[in-house]
Specification:
Layout: H1 3-7, H2 25-33, H3 37-47, H4 58-76
């Protein structure tokens, strides 16, 4: 276990509590600026069967955001 990471925690979070990170606004803005909004919606509805990333489990949400950031990098080149 990484004890350095634990030292930086401000408060104790029990293991059974799953924190839900917010959708990074800058990622969604970057997706919109790159004209990838349709791809964002398509991947959410076809692959994850939801319309909002907030409806995903934390693991699936991280996976989706990673996929979208990789697509953004690929289309940004």
């Amino acid at each position: 276990m990484h004890y350095e990471f634990l030292k930086r925690l401000d408060s104790y979070v029990p293991e059974h509590v799953q924190p839900v990170p917010a959708v990074p606004a800058n990622l969604k803005d970057a997706i919109d600026a790159a004209n990838l909004t349709e791809m964002w919606d398509m991947i959410l509805t076809l692959d994850y069967s939801v319309s909002d990333p907030g409806d995903l489990t934390p693991e699936k949400r991280d996976e989706f955001l990673n996929v979208m950031s990789l697509l953004l990098k690929a289309f940004d080149r």
